[in-house]
């Protein structure tokens, strides 16, 4: 793509790069030098800018703060063996951000604005892309309403921004999760498929109750019968039962994860049977009891694959078998890592050079 937008860039006079200990970065706490920002005013996107990362001023009546018109994305850029940098499936994040925008009555972000903003920001902060195996640059695009008006209606004005954080390998300690059969994350017809800020806020209280009981995450179930599996925490969930890769089918209450999509595509490539359908808590627990539940894991950008070790169901904990070294979750993780590092054949053309 040729660069068609002029992005006004104000470089930092004091890079923080030298002060960062890349071997000991806590997820989400260290921010790269610059950020991208563009305002939507009077029905039009204004001149985009790259400026030093820093605080900004908002009106106390900012309508995103009051009514939650706020959406985001999470994606990563990876250091390549030849010294370059590549993004994993960025156009999927762009189209999902626009799907979230539509659901929240927010303006569409043009592809070139998203892609060019992303690429120029990462090129400018290219030294912030960590080089150690398994590390990456986490990228947070987001958009929020900016009207200073407390009437309830879609805002007229918005800001779209991107900032980035270097992150290390996410240590996948085996998870303790439990079925949640009282509270719900989202309902059919709601906004659960959108990456909307409010979905996270509403999930915190039930998640906190589970944390207090010693669980890392919940397995959310459907809002009507509280039986059918939706997602695990803020990740999609995949089971391997009886040799088949099984995951809840997408709906308006489930977020269409790009990691989920990628894992299912690789499962197809490996010749495995993939089923996207309803999965009940009872089916999972019966398979576990019968020794047919081989693996269960969360999938999402932050952790890639998060293996589940223990499932709580009706006040009892049940341990899953330990996945063998050639288990699907290990093989798919290795395949994804290789593609992202530019070491495995990228047959689906997922990687985009910065
Ligand atoms: C972001 C997110 C996911 C994972 O999506 P990825 O594109 O794989 O990172 C899953 N569930 C929820 C609720 C999410 O917000």
From TrEMBL:
Keyword Amino-acid biosynthesis: yes
Keywords: Amino-acid biosynthesis, Aminotransferase, Branched-chain amino acid biosynthesis, Pyridoxal phosphate, Transferase
Biological or metabolic pathway of the protein: Amino-acid biosynthesis; L-valine biosynthesis; L-valine from pyruvate: step 4/4; Amino-acid biosynthesis; L-isoleucine biosynthesis; L-isoleucine from 2-oxobutanoate: step 4/4; Amino-acid biosynthesis; L-leucine biosynthesis; L-leucine from 3-methyl-2-oxobutanoate: step 4/4
Protein name per Swiss-Prot or TrEMBL: branched-chain-amino-acid transaminase
The EC number(s) this enzyme carries: 2.6.1.42
PANTHER family for this protein: BRANCHED-CHAIN-AMINO-ACID AMINOTRANSFERASE, SUBGROUP IIII AMINOTRANSFERASE
Classification via InterPro entries: Aminotrans_IV, Aminotransferase-like, B_amino_transII, BCAT-like_C, BCAT-like_N, BCAT_family
Top-rank taxon, per record: Bacteria
Necessary cofactors: pyridoxal 5'-phosphate
Function as written in the Swiss-Prot or TrEMBL entry: Acts on leucine, isoleucine and valine.
Catalytic reaction(s) noted: L-leucine + 2-oxoglutarate = 4-methyl-2-oxopentanoate + L-glutamate; L-valine + 2-oxoglutarate = 3-methyl-2-oxobutanoate + L-glutamate; L-isoleucine + 2-oxoglutarate = (S)-3-methyl-2-oxopentanoate + L-glutamate
Lineage: Bacteria, Pseudomonadati, Bacteroidota, Cytophagia, Cytophagales
A Pfam family: Aminotran_4
An MF annotation (GO) of this entry: branched-chain-amino-acid transaminase activity
CDD domains: BCAT_beta_family
Gene3D superfamilies: 3.30.470.10, D-amino Acid Aminotransferase, subunit A, domain 2
Family: Belongs to the class-IV pyridoxal-phosphate-dependent aminotransferase family.
